[in-house]
Amino acid sequence: MSETSNHDMKNLKDTPGRLLRSHREKKGLSTLEIAKRIHLDIKIIDSIEQDSDEGMPDATYVRGYLRSYAKIVGADPDNVIALYNSESPLPPPEVVPEVKKHSQINSSDKPVKAFTYLLTFGLVLLLLIWYQSNYIVDTSIITDPNNDNSQKSINGVDISYDIVIHPSSWKSPEKISGLRPQTSEPIIYEDILKLQPDNEVQTLDMYIKEDEEKKEIGTTIGSGPDMVYLDVKKKSWVEIFDANDKKLFLDNALSGRQYYIYGTAPFKVLLGFSPGVTVEFNGMVFNHSRYSVNSIARFKLSE
Fold first, then answer.
1. Rounded-to-integer distance, Cα 89 and Cα 66, Å
2. For the segment 97-115, what is each residue's pLDDT rounded down to a tens digit?
3. Listed residue (237, 287, 229) closest to 259, CA to CA
4. Confidence of residue 54 (pLDDT cuts 50, 70, 90)
5. Nearest 5°: CA angle at 55, between 51 and 57?
6. Statement: residue 229 has pLDDT above 90
7. How many beta carbons lie within 10 A of that of residue 217, not counting itself?
8. Are β-strands 296-301 and 267-271 bridged in parallel, bridged antiparallel, or unpaired?
9. What is the pTM of this model?
10. CATH 1.10.260.40: which residues of the chain?
11. CATH assignment of 8-87?
């Protein structure tokens, strides 16, 4: 091949478009495949290979397209960018508008002073109105409390009162024999017990014991041939659904309580705090620890 033909072939590859197209053809790729990989319109790929500015964005974006194109076809990205920069004119210098410095408002300015004085005066006025309405009382309306015609209220508030004279020393209550006499002394618990027949007297401890016996410690839920028993040591969120996806339990299980849940197996169970709950299925203890992740257990109780 002559020297002239070598020089002509070299000139064919001295632009970004010719260089990228040559590498693409060597790779056996089409312009459509390049467009899909870069996520660009095929018209932009055609413009790149033709070294055309038609339909192309700003030079900054074009350089990004050229670099991505070069990486796909195996060309040197820096060489392609250098070829593009040698042919593209430099962008015009950015014109920065002159910004006038704003004057800072000072507390010594007259408008600021006037606003401050006005605000202070308003606050003081509101404070005086509030004080007068809550703490100042007209003494002219206070008269002798022994006079029936004296003032009974101030500002809609009842100020009438009764004078109670307390004894100077403590006095032991009289022993009760039969019915209590008319007296201002308080009725005490032991005196009430003495007034009842012997077979009806109940102490406070007996009442407390009866209330404790009435406390519900076991709860039965649902009906069916299979049973899930929960013994709750620490409060836990519990979800239980039966074989028909019927909700049997969806609530917090309280500590110290036992739950008997009946339905049709298999049961789908979720324990929000599995270490605090013991589970039995049809009378057999079920170890759910192997299903627990971060104290949350999900498992199924089969037939």
1. 16
2. 555 555 566 667 788 888 8
3. 229
4. confident
5. 90
6. yes
7. 7
8. antiparallel
9. 0.32
10. 8-87
11. 1.10.260.40
Maximum C-alpha span of the chain = 145
Question: Tokens 């002239």 appear where?
Answer: 4
Tell me the Ramachandran region of residue 167: left when phi exceeds 0, alpha when psi lies from -120 to 50, beta otherwise. beta
